[in-house]
Amino acid sequence: MPQSPDITSDFLVIGGGIAGLSFALKAAAIGSVAVLAKAGSADANTSYAQGGIASVWSVDDSFESHVEDTLRAGAGLCNRAAVEAIVRDGPEVVRELIRLGTRFTRVTEGNEHEYDLGREGGHSHRRVLHAQDLTGQEIMRALWEAVRTTPNIRFYDEHLAIDLLIENRSRPDARCWGSYALDRRSGAIRKFRARFTLLATGGAGKVYLYTTNPDIASGDGVAMAYRAGVPIGNMEFYQFHPTCLYHPEAKSFLISEALRGEGAILKLPGGEPFMKRYSPDAELAPRDIVARAIDSEMKRLGLDCVYLDLSHRGADFIRRRFPNIYTRCASLGIDITREPIPVVPAAHYMCGGVVTDLSARTALPGLYAAGEVAMTGLHGANRLASNSLLEAAVMARRAFIDVAERMAARSAAAPPSFPDWNPGRAIRSDERVLVTQSWDEIRRLMWNYVGIVRTDRRLERARRRLALLREEIHSYYWDHLIDSDLVELRNLVVVAELIVRSAIYRKSSRGLHYNLDHLESDDERWLHDTIIRD
Ligand SMILES: Cc1cc2nc3c(=O)[nH]c(=O)nc-3n(C[C@H](O)[C@H](O)[C@H](O)COP(=O)(O)OP(=O)(O)OC[C@H]3O[C@@H](n4cnc5c(N)ncnc54)[C@H](O)[C@@H]3O)c2cc1C
User: Fold this and answer.
1) From the candidates 119, 127, 175, 287, which is the catalytic residue?
2) H helices then E strands: how many in the chain?
3) 201 C-alpha vs ligand 1 centroid, how far in Å?
4) Dist. CA 26 → ligand 1 center (Å)
5) Is it the case that residue 429 has pLDDT exceeding 90?
6) Active site residue 195
7) Crossing angle for the helix pair 135-148 and 18-27, to the nearest 10 degrees
8) What is the pLDDT of residues 90-117, one digit of tens each?
9) pTM of this prediction?
10) At what angle do helices 63-73 and 80-100 cross, to 10 degrees?
11) What pLDDT, on a 0 to 100 scale, did the predictor assign at position 157?
């Protein structure tokens, strides 16, 4: 297997979404930055965000209100200090995004200097800044224009981080100094050495059969950190988006929460609304309640999908407010100004992840984590809509403040040398079917046994199947020369097991974790995080 010379920089950023790029732009002011992205520059969850970024912006709103809404959604498991810190930093990071050139949608009637604030489920005020329904794309455009003109940043696309470079592994003075990464174009494995490493690899939606996430979301950061002995928290809380477009030609197309915020109604095939039966907030109930309601109606009536109807808001409004969704649906023959949209729930957001403090530090010195890969305590047992872009931008900024202090205090030496990647006796794989079959099995069993509604028996079944798959994948991994599918598969099974172990551990229902055998939330015994460490 070819090796290439080491790349050495002050900062290594693994991931090129909002968390990684926000951090890289700041860090470039004080040192050299290498950014790795395992696919192209736009292949990130961030590019897909539609609804927007939540932040206290209008004079009618308050930090207290945003904090309370976040705590309510989190069902008792949010860390109040994290919620307050992240909510209070919100307006500043939004201003930074605007200074970078992000063009959020403005109010056109009345005052064109004011930003249009969307309202989403679980928020008691309008506080979601958005760029029509293409917020993520617009943020990425602005970040990218800045990255391109920043000389201290080198971007390595098609570079897949495999495992962290750790000095003195298993000893109390263990430290992270970067990562091995596979150059997917040449097949070479390179060492990226750095004083500080930021994991910003996003979520893990690909662990489920149906997901709103793009293909990059295989939980690599969580798996790498776990193998490095870093604590991983609250993996049982996986958020399912209630409304993904149901159409044979549409792969993972999200129908934004903002439609329900603007009055869209969920209906059965006969046109009967049903959300009032599940929550007094009806369509504006938090996502987990809406997803479970849809799941329950689909199972009760044997439906393939339900319908989301916004047609009563009029064609002009719909085309102006939701141009992306309107156009995508129209391309599939669905005119959302006149007819309801067929929708199903799909895996959407990982509330748990690599445990960090409020400076984005993990338990492993030298290693930071920000964005969806991290667990800061903001989301607790359930994420409030549009709080994730906020968290990613805020925590990237906080990580930077911490590393800047350390750089100024010269507390990080230059990285030591590490051995080249050792392929051992590995041979080229000639049976791809073994990899694709394991991928399919994991995703399907996670969907069927560890989805929106869980039971002890299904979880136990998933645990046994995954243990077997892990053994097979492990031996296949070490016997064969690695490629990106194999690296991702090895990570996927780790993440799946972490979700299942956490779900089995929590013998109560709370937030996104709903187990029919333990419906009570039992605050006395279960008001704590689930933390797993290798
Ligand atoms: C359809 C959709 C709609 C959403 N809408 C909203 C919304 O309206 N508001 C909101 O707040 N949130 C929303 N979210 C969630 C939000 O977009 C994400 O949580 C957020 O963008 C995550 O940002 P990130 O920087 O952590 O990761 P990402 O943007 O996912 O970036 C991850 C990066 O890591 C790279 N990477 C991954 N693994 C590796 C590896 N092994 N080696 C090298 N690189 C790697 C990827 O290539 C990518 O560049 C939405 C998500 C989806 C999928």
Assistant:
1) 287
2) 15, 18
3) 7
4) 19
5) no
6) no
7) 30
8) 999 999 999 999 999 998 766 766 999 9
9) 0.93
10) 120
11) 97
- Print burial letters for 36-69: b (CB count within 10 Å at least 16), e (below 16): bbbbebbbbbbbbbbbbbbbbbeeebeeebbbeb
Q: Which residues line ligand 1 (CB under 6 A)?
A: 14-20, 36-39, 43-46, 48-53, 135-136, 160-161, 200-202, 212-213, 216, 220, 254, 349, 371-373, 386-389, 392
Closest C-alpha to 87, from 46, 110, 53, 38: 53
What are the residues facing 160 on neighbouring strands? 182
- pLDDT tens for 464-480 read 999 999 999 998 888 88
Q: Residue range 281-304: average pLDDT?
A: 88
What does the H/E/C string look like for 90-121? HHHHHHHHHHHCCCCCECCCCCCCCECEECCC
By C-alpha distance, which of 484, 492, 417 is closest to 186?
484
Strand residue runs (E) in 135-188: 153-156, 159-167, 175-183
Residues 6+ apart with CB under 8 A from 301: 268
What is the rounded CA–CA span in Å between residue 450 and residue 437?
19
Q: Whose CA is nearest to atom 49 of ligand 1?
A: 16
**SS3 (DSSP) at 456:** helix
Position 270 scores a pLDDT of 96
Which residue do the tokens 């805020």 mark? Answer: 394
Distance 373 CA to ligand 1 centre (A): 9
Residue type, 431: E
DSSP secondary structure letter of residue 248: T
